[in-house]
Write a structure and sequence with these properties.
Oligomer: single chain
Distance between the termini: 43 Å
Strand content: 15-25%
Radius of gyration: 29 Å
Strand order of the largest sheet: 16-15-14-13-12-11-24-25
Helix content: 40-55%
Length: 811
């Protein structure tokens, strides 16, 4: 290949090599401190080889440059992921006074009890523990709760803040397929959090803010102006939705609207994305065209509008990334310079990864970059194939399909669904949403100068939003509005993008590839065929296995049992007591879909407490469930826990489990070992009537105990039950109200699994309980530390894996 013959392919190769280097560095957990001399040595060697070959104009120069960027990717990620020794996260677990500067406008949420939850992003200067003061760096979330009457005085960007509390590292739900919220915070430099009472937080106003702080304060005031004026003329939920369309965020939006937007594939409208930027740019370009401005002046106006919009959105990283990606796509597609835009996009992506290599694993960057790639590389090809269609229809379909096809593996991994109805929604709903956004922006400007005019515009905008919601709901209710997708592995994802790359090649290049395949068809066909035969042989000869997954649902219980031929059962479903986070919809259902499960044979609930049963409500409304077995608390208790009405027909699926009952499914036996009668239990609170279920497959057995208390543990032992099991779900999250010494001896498990939330206020599991099981030789596993825990057994042998152990990225 001649030097400089394929510059775009060369740039794409450098980007791919750099990304592969980042991926390998994360996969191998390369420590920068340990391996820095070796990394620098390899990097210098690759740079020297590249320089020599470039000077000689050698046609193999591209290989050296690809190797150089691969090493550079390894080096950059290892350096960026290493936390400095003075980062505040190293003080995790210590109760300190944190002093720092507020760097973002506070986020305020008011719950159902009218308690205000306030969150600040702070750059800490120092922490004080006792009489010792220590300088620190990084960023931290400071959470505070205001329970008094009236509104507290909120801090502004640039104000100094001090708070007293225990430093904790951020913690999310650690399950495969879920967006890693902890890593997203790490990408933004936030590595710790502090929860403080209102009385433990002091804010000192900064009367002489810097120019940057003043500018960001002004942007925050503009956003506050919008939300204040909108809530004055429309329902708060409508204001929250329009505000989200303008500036991003999901606070206060009706769950029904969020659900319908998700089903129809246009939920990105509720966050700052490239589509917002393109829309704004299109409006400015149209105005420039109407005013007959010269092209350079029009382009300058478009860029200026994008910059202002990104500033108003708070200069948050997603807004900045979307501004860059949206501007590139718009300038390429609308101004007819697609080829130039492709170069700019690749160089932009490479530059952004060099500055922040962790972006490669950030879903916002992945979706923005790949969607823009689809618009610039794939949409023109699709538009050419759609020539027989009307021009407007072909353009709209090609853009929608290009973006969706480019992001398909990411959507499959994180959401396991793709919206078929998005084509219709983009044709019918999105143009109306565009009007809502433009009117929203205009209404805020009008309200600033002519308040009465602003009210009229916002009122009309609220009516349009209502129309949008009804249209979207109708589209979402159509048959096959969404289709389920299996999660793609790494090899499948790479193969998919290679196929897309092949489609984007010119006819000449595709012909050359076909000729190459025909020339070496034996090697190209024989190797994959041998691999497929070996894979099929392994699949056929492997023993039938049962899987038991303990899902990380925080401070609650949820376990999935998969039979050898794919039947699925859940034992408890998790949930939160205050209902602020829907575990069923946001943890359980995504986990099931990630593993290709779209129907459940049974749900076995130990009792009606929310941390065990609340998630079942969302599961029952989203997928078929054959039957739900409950404890003896009555249907009304479960309806309250699941937050569904007493007359909901879904409750017909519920029925009490009877002690001694056994269910056999695909060779797996479920025994109802213990099911106390609610009427015969004194002072029953729910824990006292916990059902106990045992799952058996061959010689392997699992015991699910809910919140079983000592009194009932002793009753089970007194009844002469054989409680010896392979794996025990430790009763009541490891509380000292359970796991008496006799019960531990009777169960004598190989593994003791604790379903607990990180830093929970109950102190679960108790050290005395941990010690009790460990003295019996049981290996302890915990969902707060290990994430999802998966056991696999063929009835004779048992293996276990944990999500945290298998993660690419861990501290």
């Amino acid at each position: 290949m001649k030097t400089g013959q394929y510059p775009l392919a060369f740039l794409c190769g450098l980007l791919a090599a750099f990304g592969l280097g980042i991926f390998c560095s994360a996969w191998l957990h390369i420590s920068f401190v340990t391996y820095a001399p070796y990394l620098i040595g390899f990097l210098l060697a690759a740079a020297l080889a590249s320089a020599v070959l470039a000077i000689q104009a050698n046609e193999r120069t591209w290989i050296a440059f690809v190797g150089l960027f691969f090493m550079l990717g390894i080096f950059r990620f290892a350096a960026a992921y290493e936390l400095p020794p003075h980062d505040i996260s190293h003080a995790a677990g210590a109760c300190v006074r944190v002093a720092g500067t507020i760097i973002a406008a506070p986020v305020v949420r008011t719950d159902a009890d009218h308690v205000q939850h306030i969150r600040y992003i702070v750059e800490p200067h120092h922490i004080t523990q006792g009489h010792e003061e220590q300088e620190v760096s990084g960023k931290i979330h400071i959470h505070m709760i205001h329970k008094g009457e009236g509104n507290p005085t909120y801090g502004q960007i640039g104000d100094e803040i001090t708070a007293v509390g225990t430093i904790r590292r951020p913690h999310g739900y650690q399950n495969p397929g879920l967006i890693d919220t902890v890593f997203l915070l790490r990408c933004d430099g936030i590595t710790a959090r502090v929860f403080a009472e209102n009385s433990e937080v002091e804010i000192t106003p900064n009367e002489t803010p810097t120019f940057t702080q003043t500018f960001l304060r002004w942007a925050a005031q503009v956003r506050a102006h919008y939300i204040d004026r909108m809530t004055g003329v429309m329902p708060r939920e409508d204001a929250a939705a329009i505000f989200a369309m303008l500036f991003g965020g999901y606070e206060g939006i009706r769950p029904e609207l969020l659900e319908t937007f998700t089903v129809t594939g246009i939920v990105h409208i509720l966050s700052v994305s490239g589509s917002h930027i393109s829309l704004l740019a299109a409006v400015i370009a149209w105005l420039a065209l109407f005013l007959r401005l010269p092209r350079p002046l029009s382009a300058a106006a478009v860029i200026l509008a994008i910059i202002v919009y990104v500033i108003l959105a708070g200069l948050v990283p997603p807004a900045v990334r979307s501004g860059i990606m949206g501007a590139v796509a718009f300038l390429g597609l609308v101004l007819g310079r697609e080829r130039d835009a492709r170069y700019i996009l690749i160089l932009t992506g490479l530059l952004m990864l060099m500055i922040s290599p962790m972006l490669l694993f950030h879903i916002s960057f992945q979706l923005s970059f790949l969607a823009t790639m689809g618009l610039l590389f794939l949409a023109p090809v699709l538009r050419e194939w759609m020539n027989p269609l009307p021009r407007v229809l072909a353009a709209s379909l090609s853009i929608t399909l290009g973006a969706q096809l480019a992001t398909l593996p990411i959507l499959a991994w994180h959401f396991n669904q793709i919206s078929v109805s998005s084509l219709l929604a983009n044709l019918i709903v999105v143009p109306l949403v565009d009007v809502v956004i433009i009117l929203g922006l205009g209404g805020g400007i009008a309200a600033l100068f002519v308040p009465f005019l602003g009210k009229i515009v916002f009122g009309f905008d609220s009516l349009l939003l209502g129309m949008t919601f009804e249209m979207t709901r109708a589209i979402a209710a159509m048959p096959l509005a969404q289709i389920d997708l299996p999660s793609m592995g790494i090899c499948a994802g790479i193969s998919y993008y290679l196929f897309l790359s092949f489609l984007m090649l010119s006819q000449e290049n595709r012909t050359a590839i076909f000729e190459f395949i025909l020339r070496f068809y034996r090697i190209i066909v024989i190797i994959p065929a041998a691999f497929l035969i070996a894979l099929f042989s392994w699949y056929v000869s492997r023993p039938d296995e049962m899987e038991v997954h303990f899902i990380d649902v925080g401070q609650g219980d949820a376990a999935l049992v998969l039979t050898p031929h794919g039947h699925a059962m859940l034992f408890d479903t998790g949930g939160t007591r205050d209902g602020t986070f829907d575990i069923g919809a946001r943890i359980d259902v995504p986990y099931l879909r990630h593993h290709g499960i779209h129907a459940l044979d049974y749900i076995f609930l130990s009792h009606a407490h929310e941390d065990h049963a609340a998630g079942a409500g969302a599961i029952l409304t989203r997928m078929p469930v054959r039957h739900v077995y409950t404890a003896d608390e009555g249907t009304a208790a479960y309806a309250r826990s699941m937050r569904i009405g007493d007359g909901n027909p879904l409750l017909m699926n519920l029925g009490r489990a009877e002690a001694g009952q056994s269910i056999v499914l695909d060779g797996v036996t479920v025994d109802v070992l213990y099911a106390p009668d609610y009427g015969q239990v004194d002072h029953a609170t729910g824990n006292e009537v916990s059902n106990v279920y045992r799952v058996r497959y061959g010689n392997a057995s699992f015991l699910f105990t809910g919140d079983l208390v000592k009194e009932h543990e002793e009753k089970m032992i007194a009844q002469g039950m054989d409680l010896h099991v392979t794996v025990l779900k430790v009763p009541h999250h490891g509380s000292d109200t359970s796991s008496c010494a006799e019960f531990v001896r009777a169960t004598h498990p190989l593994y003791a699994v604790y379903c607990v939330g990180a830093d929970n206020t109950f102190g679960h599991p108790r050290p005395s309980v941990l010690e009790r099981y460990e003295r019996m030789g049981a290996r302890s596993l915990r969902t707060d530390r290990d994430g999802a825990i998966v056991f696999r057994t063929d009835g004779e042998h048992l293996s276990v894996s944990t999500f945290v152990e298998g993660k690419f990225l861990r501290d």
